[in-house]
Write a structure and sequence with these properties.
371 residues; alpha/beta; FAD/NAD(P)-binding domain; D-Amino Acid Oxidase, Chain A, domain 2; 9-stranded mixed sheet; 6-stranded mixed sheet; 22 strands; 27% strand
């Protein structure tokens, strides 16, 4: 039996960031059910850093992560974690009022564009369809792999341990400690952190904790060739103003999605052909892109609770059981702040002052809000 101060279940971006921060405060064992960390949603993320994306809590956590992204600790990553991209929301003529309302709400962080300005940014947009847009110049691409691996390297450097093929099959508490039984061995610690992504409610049931109504939702992604001879490197992320599609440059190709959110049970989710066809249709309706061949297609699960805020904190009725769940589609861009937040709350420290100043509150995150 291996002992630690903290057992973290799930080595996706949430668990990895928490393990990195907690390993500076105690011994951490990070348990991953798959043979490699980040196999599910983390490894399938089309990651962006958008400070205007999500509800008030998500936006505050994203802004609270900016400093880490721009200036990570020495040796954390071989390359910069953020790359300028920009985000362009586009709309049809019947969506002009929605464009205006959104631009007003974003204020100085965005610029309302007319049709001509929008088409100059992305020349393949159809002039007979696209009537205007909103540019958010500060949106950036996230190096998801570099970020995830940086957290895992930092965990190891601080003496923490990653255990793969370590699916938790039973979870029990006795004498002030949790015992997790896995195919990779038995592990015990006073605190267990539930960072199991789409499986977080299942882990709660193993522990005898009340579930929080987590709903995993499928998101489909495809990659395809850009028009021959067309320079795409400087194109922004292009998003339908009603969030019905998006596409952006990705490693010399275009990456696109129908922005689907189909509720389903936790699983190794695969793309549905209908969703792939919907992605192609929606993108080609707005842009003169001839999608003849899909190079790659995949799907991931983005998990939400009813209010679309993360669930972070100790369970009010299950001693030593700490929730770190429901990151939805925001886990990558909020992970530096979420790691620091978890490390503070799991050790009884105050909420980090900079996050409190941004409006992050434990009341908006606590699992007790579902009690």
């Amino acid at each position: 039996m291996e002992r630690a101060d903290f057992l973290i279940i799930g080595a996706g971006i949430a668990g990895a960031s928490a393990a990195y921060e907690l390993s500076a405060r105690g011994q951490v064992i990070l348990l991953e059910r798959e043979s490699q960390p980040g196999y599910h949603t983390t490894g399938r993320s089309a990651s962006m850093f958008l400070e205007t994306y999500g509800n008030e809590t998500i936006r505050a956590l994203t802004t609270g992560s900016r400093r880490f992204f721009l200036d990570p600790p020495d040796g954390f990553a071989a390359h910069r974690l953020l790359t300028p991209r920009g985000s362009l929301s586009v709309g049809r003529r019947d969506q002009l009022s929605e464009l205006d309302r959104t631009a007003d709400a974003l204020g100085a962080k965005a610029r309302r564009l007319d049709a001509a300005e929008t088409l100059r940014l992305v020349p393949v947009l159809r002039p007979e369809v696209v009537a205007g847009g909103i540019l958010e110049p500060d949106a950036m691409d996230v190096d998801a792999h570099g970020l995830h691996q940086g957290f895992l390297r930092g965990l190891r450097a601080r003496g923490g341990r990653l255990v793969v093929d370590g699916e938790v099959r039973s979870l029990s508490r006795a004498d002030g400690a949790w015992l997790a039984e896995t195919p990779a061995g038995s592990f015990t610690a006073p605190v267990v952190v539930n960072a199991a992504g789409a499986w977080s409610d299942q882990i709660a049931e193993l522990a005898g904790a009340r579930t929080v109504g987590l709903v995993p939702k499928r998101r489909t992604v495809i990659t395809f060739d850009p028009p021959a001879g067309q320079a795409i490197e400087d194109w922004p992320l292009v998003v339908g103003i009603a969030e019905e599609f998006y596409f952006k440059p990705d490693a010399g190709r275009l990456l696109g999605s129908p922005a689907d959110e189909t509720p389903m049970a936790p699983c190794d989710v695969q793309p549905e052909e209908l969703d792939v066809a919907v992605a192609v249709d929606r993108i080609q309706t707005m842009a003169a892109l001839e999608i003849k061949r899909i190079h790659n297609k995949w799907a991931g699960l983005r998990s939400f609770v009813a209010d679309k805020s993360p669930v972070v904190g100790f369970d009010p009725a299950c001693e030593g059981f700490f929730w770190l769940a429901a990151q939805g589609g925001y886990g990558m861009q909020t992970s530096p702040a979420m790691g620091r937040l978890t490390a503070a709350l799991a050790t009884g420290a105050p909420l980090p002052a900079d996050l409190a100043d941004l409006g992050v509150s434990t009341a908006a995150l606590t699992p007790a809000r579902w009690a």
